[in-house]
Amino acid sequence: MKVLQHTSECLAIQERLIGIWLLSLASIGVGIFMFFLFEPPVDVVGACCIALGCIFATLTPSETFIFDKRNGCLTAHKRQILRQQTRALSIKDIQAVQVDSQEFLGAQFYQIKLQLTSGESLKVTKTVTTDLQQQQRIVRHIRGFLSITATVQGELLQPTRPI
Predict the structure, then answer these.
(1) Among 15, 102, 116, 142, which is least packed by CB within 10 angstroms?
(2) What is the pTM of this model?
């Protein structure tokens, strides 16, 4: 998850599925190895690995959240390999920003969620991570942009403005 833009009127954050991107790079590496070290027809297989790796690295799924104060909306743009989906919500519908924690095999995993006034929970980060500091940094960006203050040890963030 990274912050693409943070101005007074717009906050854009993006998450890419790094696992698919790393597999694509591995495919490119194997393809280069096969292409240069072997003779036909194996080098053709290597060229195909390079081509497929480049295609998948370019088309790695991503999700971008754009908080726009000027229009008062949150746009969630999800891009998968062959499909794109866009969802627009009002910024006023955001009730809380929450770093959700889950335990699995003794390890803590964290994920950012937006709690909406409708009771729905919208995941900002689809993949879970053990890096709590990164999740808290992203939450601080969102909180600062939306003028939301922390209430419970930085985990649950409630709005200061009336809803």
Answers:
(1) 102
(2) 0.68
